[in-house]
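# step 3/5: fold
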Amino acid sequence: MACMNEDGQWIVLMGLLVAVGLFFLALIINQSVLVGQTTAEGVLEFPKNDIRDLREAVFDYVDKFGDAGDAGVKEDIVAISLERKNAVVDFSVEPQVEVSGHYLHPVTIHYYNGVTEYNENVYY
């Protein structure tokens, strides 16, 4: 009995190691798929067009009124953003300053829709 054939034990042990390795690989692949899906959902939820529309409205406001502004138009932009896009919007236009020989208004835009927060400081 001292000289038993133990080749079968090695086959079973190697099979167990391969099964455990496959389990860990499957777990890693499953996690990477979930992370990829979450990333894709984040990209789809980013309101790029809403922010572009807001910037266009603010820049039209600056072109027409400058820093003097019309409080009614500003309130309308804020109210329309809240009503149509469910987004809290605020913007401010400062008096003109000289930037590289051009007189531009510093504009601060804030956008928040509960998921995405966007802040921008731009000279226009």
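# step 4/5: annotate
Residues 99 and 123 are 8 Å apart (CA to CA).
# step 5/5: archive (pending)
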